[in-house]
Amino acid sequence: MIKQLIADAKKIIIKFGSNTLAGKDGKINFEFLDEFAEQAASLMHNSKKIVIVSSGAQVAGLSAMDKWARKKDIHYRQALCAVGQVQLMKAWRKAFEKQGFHIAQILLTREDFNDSNRTLNMRNTLFTLVDEGIIPIINENDTVSVEEIKIGDNDTLAARSAVLWSADLLILFSDIDGVFDKNPKEFADASLLEEIKDIETARKNITIGAANDFGTGGIATKFEAAQMALSYGIPVIIADGGKPRSLEALAAGNQKGTVFSV
């Protein structure tokens, strides 16, 4: 089913969490970005249009500013994101440049989605960039986002962006294979749910266990993102983005994940 969804989709949003983008040292995994850019370019050469939602500003900031690693003050966190966003975009630019593609940066807050004029401008910019063969890379504007205007997480941001762009498919890459009936980090007999049509029933039947999530982003936020996307007819795939050539493997039907479908 995943293979067919990717084959049928023309407009695909792909979201990456920080853990997927980070190497074992906690800094940006440049080899991973190069590998993904190669896979994305292959899809784009086959008439697919791609928008990326990328976490990783803090990870990238720490790559440049190790001395701030222990700073917990919100002003340092936001300053770290300001430094890191430049590094993150530089890494993405280098990766896609090797494939002959340009990227563009779009930083958003919740207020942007709640204002009709801003929403229209965002939508027009997205369509223009993609139509010109440029890959938009969206992230929350952590430098200015405080609790009152924060979107909350990049799963939600990805779902909102998918709705804004009228995407055909949303792929949420995480550090877990998908949604399980119980926490696979605690229970060896946990089973992957390969398709979910009734989100509320799935929520009730999942045993989360001692930990409050299954992956670093939290399973609850992924359910909420999937529910938002599905309400607009956009199917969602959750899969492990850290596996070798994961996008290529999903497109070929060689990697499992969880599909939320209507």
Task: Output the keywords.
alpha/beta; 8-stranded mixed beta sheet; two-stranded antiparallel sheet; globular
Question: How would you characterize this protein structure?
Answer:
- It contains 11 helices and 10 strands.
- It is globular and about 40 Å long.
- The chain starts with a helix and ends with a strand.
- It has 262 residues and is an alpha/beta fold.
List the helices and strands and how they pair.
Layout: H1 2-8, E1 11-16, H2 18-21, H3 30-44, E2 49-54, H4 57-64, H5 74-97, E3 103-108, H6 110-114, H7 116-131, E4 135-140, H8 154-165, E5 169-174, E6 179-180, E7 192-193, E8 195-196, H9 199-205, H10 219-230, E9 236-240, H11 246-252, E10 258-260
Parallel strand pairs: 1-2, 1-5, 2-4, 3-4, 5-9, 8-10
Antiparallel strand pairs: 6-7, 9-10
Helix pairs in contact: 3-5, 4-5, 8-10
